[in-house]
Amino acid sequence: MSARRLVGLETEYGIIRPGMPKANATVLSAQIVDSYAQLVAQGDARVQGARWDYADESPLQDARGFAINRADAHPSQLTDVEPDQQEGIWTAESIALSGNDARIGSTLYQEKDTTDVVMNMVLGNGARLYVDHAHPEYSSPESTSPRAAVLWDQAGDEVMRRAADSAQRLGGGQLLLYKNNTDNKSVSYGAHENYLVPRAVEFSALVSGLTPFFATRQIFCGAGRVGRGMLGERAEFQISQRADFFEAEVGLETTINRPIINTRDEPHAVWDKYRRLHVIIGDANLGQISTLLRVGTTNLVLSLIEAGLAPALELEDPVAALQQISHDPSLATAVRLRGGRRLSAIQIQREYLLAAQGYCASRGIEDADTAEILQRWEAVLDLLERDPLLAADQVDWIAKYKLVTSFAQRHGLGLDDPRIGLMDLQWADLRQDKGLYYRLAARGAMQSLFSQEQINQAVAAPPEDTRAYLRGMTLQRYAPYVVAANWDALTFAVPGARRVNRVFLSEPLGGSRKDVGRLFEANLEIDEFINKLAPRA
Amino acid sequence: MTQESFSSRRQSETQEHAEQIQVNTTGQSAGVDDLLDEIDSVLESNAEEFVRGFVQKGGQ
C-alpha cells in the first residue's frame, strides 16, 4: 500500500491549422509526428526514435474476461492494425478519413511521397508518439512515482511544442496544439491513465471501489470548461472537460457510449500476473499539482481496493452524479448514494482519504511519495471546503474559473461572450507565449514541482526504474538496429544476422538502470549488446 | 515532547499555514490581475471566428 505504482499517461492533443478549419486532422497530426521524426533524424535534442510494433495490441480484450468479435467492434476500437497495412479493414487512418475528408496525398501532402510520413514512433525517453485517429498522441514512458508521472507527462507537452516548431521551420506552416479534451462542438478526445494492477484483484472490486472516486476526484483535477452539454449549448462553467461525454458505468468502448470504468484489458506485460487498468474518465491537466493529485490519489485508492479496504459507497446513478458534480463549481452539490444518503464530492473524497490515512498509519507506511500525496490530498480538500478559490494556485479548473470570471466581472460580460469562449480554448494552447495557463504560471500564480530545465531533461532521458529505461536507452544508443519497438518488446535487425532478434520486456520493472545500466556503460557493439540482453528476456 | 509544547507547536503551525495561504492567494490574485491587464495582446484576434474554427475530429 502506497502512492507508488507503475503508471503511464496518454494525451491526445487538439490540433488546428489556423484559418483552415477544414484541414484534415489526420494529416496535420501525421505532420506533427513526422516533424518530430525529422528532429530526431537531425540528431536534435538526443531524441532517437523507431517504428512502433503492433504485435502486442489486443484492444478488443475485455477485463471482465471475454473478447468481443472483431466484426462487432466499432471501427475506432481496432487500434492494433498499422495504418494502411491491411486492405479491406478499417485502419486508424481510414477511420479518421472516413468523413468527407480527402486522403493523405491529395491535399496538404501533395508534393510529398506519402510513404515517408511517420505515423508512429518510440522516443529516446521511452515514450510513444503517434497519430491516434485524428489527434497527435504522446504516451508517457512507464514510471513508478506520482512525481515521475507528472514529469514525463509534462515532457510530452514539450515534445509536442518542439514538433510544432519543427513543422513550421520545415515549411509546413503553423500548427496549433491544445492540451484539452473537447472542441465544445460535440467532439471529445482523451487523456488516459494506465495503472498496473495485480490480476488477482477482482475486476468487480475495481469497479465498485473506483466508481465513486472517479465521479468525485474532478474537484481537484478537473481542467474546467466553459460549456454545458456535448455541444456546449449553454455557456456555463463546469469543473470537468470530459464529464458531459460519459454515458455508461462500465464498458469496453472509448469513443462512443463512454464508460466511467473502461474494461480494455491489454496488460502489455505478463498476462497472468498483471492487469493494466485503462482509465478514460480524466481531463488532461496542464497544471503539475492537478496531475500529481490525479495520479497519486488514484494509486492510493487502488491500493485500498487491493487490500479490500475501499470505503463501501455506492452511488445511485454514477453518470448523473459525475455530471451534477461537474456542473457545480461551488462544490455544494450532494449526490445520492444507494440507501438514500446524500454526500458532497468533498465528503466522498474524505471517506477515501480517511481510509488511506488509516491504512498507512496502521501499517507504518511513510515513504516520501505516500506522505506527500496524503498531505496534499488532505490540504486540498480542506481548502476546497473553506473556499474553492483558495486552491486556485494548484487546481486547474479553479485557476481557469478565476481567470474567466475575473475577466467577465471586469468588463461586465456574460460567459457567452466570444472572448470568454476564446479564453477557455486558449487556456490550453501549448505555446508558452500564448497559452493562458503558461502566462499565468509564468507569473508564479501556479504551484509547480519541476522547472523547464528538468522537463527538458525528461524529453531526452527515460525514467530509470522501469523497462522504459531499456527501451529509451536502446533507442538513444542503437536506434539504427531497432526495426520495431512497443511497450513489451524490442526487435533488432543486425547486418549479417539471419533473422531479426526480438527481446521481450514482459516485466514492467525489468530493464531498469539497476538491471541493464552496465550494458550501456560498457559501450558494446550491437551484436554483443543483444547477446547480453537476450537471456534477461 | 510534552503535550503542552506539542499543542503550542501545532497552534503556531496552523497560524503559519493560514498566513501561507493568505500569501499564496494574494500572489495568485495579483497574477490573474496582471495577466488580465494585458489580455488583449495575448488573445487571438477575432475571438468568435477563432473559436468557431476550432473543430476537432473524434477521439477516444
TrEMBL record, chain A:
Q: Which residues form the active site?
A: 132 (proton acceptor)
GO terms for cellular component: proteasome complex
Q: Output the superkingdom of the source species.
A: Bacteria
Task: Fetch the InterPro entries from UniProt.
Answer: Pup_deamidase, Pup_ligase/deamidase
Keyword Lipid metabolism in annotation: no
Cite a single GO MF annotation.
hydrolase activity, acting on carbon-nitrogen (but not peptide) bonds, in linear amides
Q: Which UniProt keywords apply?
A: Proteasome
A GO biological process held by the record: proteasomal protein catabolic process
Q: Which family does it belong to?
A: Belongs to the Pup ligase/Pup deamidase family. Pup deamidase subfamily.
Q: Which PANTHER family match?
A: PUP DEAMIDASE/DEPUPYLASE, PUP DEAMIDASE_DEPUPYLASE
Q: What is the protein name for this chain?
A: Proteasome accessory factor PafA2
The species this protein was found in: Glutamicibacter soli
TrEMBL record, chain B:
Task: Show the Pfam families listed in the entry.
Answer: Pup (PF05639)
**Residues involved in crosslink (Isoglutamyl lysine isopeptide (Gln-Lys) (interchain with K-? in acceptor proteins))?**
60
Q: Mention one GO biological process in which this protein takes part, according to its record.
A: protein pupylation
Q: Which residues does this entry mark as bearing Deamidated glutamine?
A: 60
Describe the processing and modification events after translation.
Answer: Is modified by deamidation of its C-terminal glutamine to glutamate by the deamidase Dop, a prerequisite to the subsequent pupylation process.
Which stretches of sequence are listed as region Disordered? 1-30
What are this entry's molecular-function GO terms? proteasome binding; protein tag activity
* Compositionally biased intervals (Basic and acidic residues): 10-19
Membrane found in the keyword field: no
Record bears the keyword Transcription: no
The entry's keywords:
Isopeptide bond, Ubl conjugation pathway
What does the record give as its pathway?
A: Protein degradation; proteasomal Pup-dependent pathway
Q: What is known of its domains?
A: The N-terminal unstructured half of Pup provides a signal required to initiate unfolding and degradation by the proteasome but is not needed for pupylation, while the C-terminal helical half of Pup interacts with ARC to target proteins to the proteasome.
Quaternary structure per UniProt?
A: Strongly interacts with the proteasome-associated ATPase ARC through a hydrophobic interface; the interacting region of Pup lies in its C-terminal half. There is one Pup binding site per ARC hexamer ring.
**Function description:** Protein modifier that is covalently attached to lysine residues of substrate proteins, thereby targeting them for proteasomal degradation. The tagging system is termed pupylation.
Q: Which family does it belong to?
A: Belongs to the prokaryotic ubiquitin-like protein family.
**Protein name in UniProt:** Prokaryotic ubiquitin-like protein Pup
> What's the source species for this entry?
Glutamicibacter soli
Q: What gene is this protein translated from? A: pup
